[in-house]
């Protein structure tokens, strides 16, 4: 049983049991963002978290073991995503990529925003002209080491 | 004079005049995020904004005209960016792409977060363990039309 | 059972039962364009629509559940399509892409035609020199937000 | 002087002379869609049309000659376009590609919609919820020859 | 059963029954070129033709049904073919591509040779220095429509 | 001066002098197909042929020298051509590739049709339903050597 | 059973029976180079050779039939090989490609070295500083036909 | 002046001075294979060799300096070469790649043939049925280190 | 059973038996780096080593045989890796590639660092500001042969 | 003047002035690894360092300014490098990529080795069987944040 098969099984069982990502997240005491990423094969669960999820979703032992192994990350089937929702994020990187770079360097100097020491929060932002998706990202600035 | 040449000229003149993106943004009354994107060839300036920038950066008339034309967007030289700072954003799309999709659909149903009716704010977030980059994105949710 | 397997099953069962896309569309009260896209794995059905289609095509429960899940969109196996009928549409984008851009910007300013708040109608256009395919597309214009 | 250089020159001169694509189209008695495509390097002008455009945009003789030569077509710098406006059309091909195929085959049998014996009309469609872009495409159906 | 599986089954059964493409073509009253393409998943058979082939090759009902459905065309596993025989044709397009273009435009003006209203004949051409492959292609010229 | 620059110069001078490919071919006593390919940078001229062409098109000595050097072949700017006329030939390889292979192997056994010991003739084929492009290709069959 | 499955079966059975490629080659009276290529899915065996190999490796009838069919050639899973041994040959083409071209043209004029009328011999070359791999390639020179 | 410009200059001057690769090789006391590769930008000349070549080809001092710098190697403009002569070598790697691997491993065990401690000899092999190109390659076998 | 299936089986059995890579390495008397690479399908085990691993991980005979065959190397599913840990190494090659080249040539002249006669050691480097990964690579310098 | 042009100028002037990377590094008080990367366009110099280098290499003011700007990083012209020396490092990532991942996760848990808080040392390692290149890499381990 590969990790991809575990992910497919999680998606199917979650649908059948009518559980939300938020409910699964609360069950293991993590944010919905981290939990969803983990269950979609991008993060590593602790033994207890894996057991908890395994019970909620009725996963076999082998799947519960797999959830504790660090996965080979990358959730997209092609380097330029075809799904319109995900493509919009790729488009933001394409349109705003050099802007991110210019503004972070102006504020911090040479370095990067970590994608590892990173957290994220996604919320509905009510708006009379149509509700909005609000995403707050926070990543540690890492300066390039001189040596 | 192509738009790329205008962008290169802006970067060079800005460097020589020791102006920041923030100062340029204030001069035209827009956010630093939108202004930087515009000056890096991704957005369209009004006639007055273009004139203002043209004076600050001593651009020739042809460049000022070009800034008012809608550009062919996309700021990266390759579909997978090689620059480490920009790559981290690509990586976030790759690792969290299916998570964005799952959570937005759970909250809003089928549709996307607009990358057009969109705004962004990038700030330094002080932190004793090392300051962080904080990015707040806000995009209108657009539901798929049924017909 | 993945969504791709549901799509293959729909195509096979439709063939065997000699149903047309138009008949399936009428059964769920949507246009033939939206319905075909949905049944080919690109749109999301309501619970009733999924049930209706499930009965007409004798689909198993799992397939009916899947039709209510937002799919990972993108219907083509390669970024440049090899099928001649579909390639002609890609060719139109390639030949007329900059024309679409120039004319929409001339009429509306900077922004895009939405592919989400979008509808389409495909009809036979009788013509003595040979009938024609007539496609009417209608997408909301979305102006780039300044901020 | 290559055809690309002619195209760049046309875009620059048109900007300076504040002419619209529609005005250029009227001057040569063709639709704005065909004319824009031709001036962006995708179609071939007659000797008179080239002369007319040459005078309006003050092009050198060499450019006027080039406009009468059949160009190497394809207006995009990459196989998947990065510009958001153009990408939306690529996305429509990606999401609706198999739908186009299914519906045209259902109506006409095996064959294609011609991208050569083809015309197009792009208009503003007023709408209280926000104006829309309306595109009408008409292409001859070409059945696959059996032999 | 997908169309690819039908194609593989046809190739296997033809081998076992020691039938040639020419014999199969004669059985359905079409040329060997069209018939081979159809049986390799590129063209659509009529109900009678599919039944005839089904009997000759002992295909199951599902395969016979599939042969009457318009296939997703494109017979090669990669955009640049690796098989030496097929690559030589790709090489001809690469080496002679601009020559085809120049000569067809010189003779006919702007337009294309149709690959749909098209037929082909492949024969052995005896030659004392070594027999040759002779291919005659005939495609309708389609002029670009002006509008 | 690179070979590409020689090719561009030939195309420009030919246009200015209103010469056809056929006239150039007759001047050097070769077919229009071979001559066009040679002048578009795919074949090698003899010293006399290069001198003849050089006089007709008023080429500088350096260009005449270059025409006698074996060029780096391949006339297309991308592995999948974007020009519709040339793409149709690529499409024929894609749709009929496995058919070419099956029929040549049925007639000749394992081997290829040479693209080197090869000639081609392109003619207008009058037809009341619309004239056709007729292309006759002849390439030596080369059997795979066993050793 | 596809040809790839036949190849995998040959590799597995050969391992189990502890036979070498050289022994298999001798059994069918061909060189080890041609035989290995054939058994790895790149060449076509005669009926007797296929039978002989089938007995030695205990292959089923279907596999023996497949070995007599001309395969779709190309033995590598990616256009740039990842395996270090095979990559070194790709590197030689990359580093020495223009050298092969320059020297063959200097000696023979315009044309190619055939990869079809071709043979190869691979031997150990003893050397006190470390044994060497010696490969002798021999391919017929094919001059470009003028017509 | 980049190394590519040096290479282009060498090719042009060699043509004008009617020197062969063999003559250039003899002048510096190396094989024609190594010398051609070096002059085409793939190897590094000693100071004396560079001076010798510089005099023969009348190169400027800057070019002579460049010839002594280790170049960024790789002589082809695309990962799959389009030139038919060079493609045949790529095809040999594609068709025989797994054969090279199988036979070298059978003879030597796990390791590679070096492309660095490597030499090559290319000769005309007279043959009544048409002369052949004979290439002898010799590369040191390097076993994978165990540690 | 392909080598990929052997690798998946090793990963699964190792997880179930709670063995570390270090323990497996000690069992066969090699370094943890070489052993891990070997068990992940990149190196070749001796008969004894394969037997030892087979017993520890309870592998079937066929898997034990496969471990003694030289594998088709290359452990990544895409040419640019998506996994963040592995991508960082790719990034180092991208950012420092020309630096490696410049410094090795400055020290050694033209040649390469062998990736075959190569060993590696990976250790934890304790550091009060956060522990570090220390990797020591050692590869034989191979000078380009002149001939 | 782009950063690439600055890099080319540095390489040319360094050659003419016969300076080594090590000498340049000492002049600015950094390691030879960091300095070479910086001068090849991958790191950012301080004002004093840029001035120092500018004097040593006689760079114009504009180049000295550019050296203080954070560059768009990535030093390779293609995603898979063609230069043999650099390719060997890419090969190490390809062959050992999953090994790096397995061993770092075994030692540290889920996270990465930083390529930003990173240093490197490259030395000659004398060896009677042929000197070796020794590279010591040290990167901070960054654990994935849970939230």
From TrEMBL, chains A, B, C, D, E, F, G, H, I, J:
<comment type="function">
    <text>Catalyzes the reaction of cyanate with bicarbonate to produce ammonia and carbon dioxide.</text>
</comment>
<keyword id="KW-0456">Lyase</keyword>
<dbReference type="InterPro" id="IPR003712">
    <property type="entry name" value="Cyanate_lyase_C"/>
</dbReference>
<dbReference type="Pfam" id="PF02560">
    <property type="entry name" value="Cyanate_lyase"/>
</dbReference>
<dbReference type="InterPro" id="IPR036581">
    <property type="entry name" value="Cyanate_lyase_C_sf"/>
</dbReference>
<feature type="domain" description="Cyanate lyase C-terminal">
    <location>
        <begin position="75"/>
        <end position="147"/>
    </location>
</feature>
<dbReference type="GO" id="GO:0008824">
    <property type="term" value="F:cyanate hydratase activity"/>
</dbReference>
<dbReference type="InterPro" id="IPR008076">
    <property type="entry name" value="Cyanase"/>
</dbReference>
<dbReference type="Pfam" id="PF21291">
    <property type="entry name" value="CYNS_N"/>
</dbReference>
<feature type="active site">
    <location>
        <position position="91"/>
    </location>
</feature>
<protein>
    <recommendedName>
        <fullName>Cyanate hydratase</fullName>
        <ecNumber>4.2.1.104</ecNumber>
    </recommendedName>
</protein>
<feature type="active site">
    <location>
        <position position="114"/>
    </location>
</feature>
<comment type="similarity">
    <text>Belongs to the cyanase family.</text>
</comment>
<dbReference type="GO" id="GO:0003677">
    <property type="term" value="F:DNA binding"/>
</dbReference>
<dbReference type="InterPro" id="IPR010982">
    <property type="entry name" value="Lambda_DNA-bd_dom_sf"/>
</dbReference>
<feature type="active site">
    <location>
        <position position="88"/>
    </location>
</feature>
<dbReference type="InterPro" id="IPR048564">
    <property type="entry name" value="CYNS_N"/>
</dbReference>
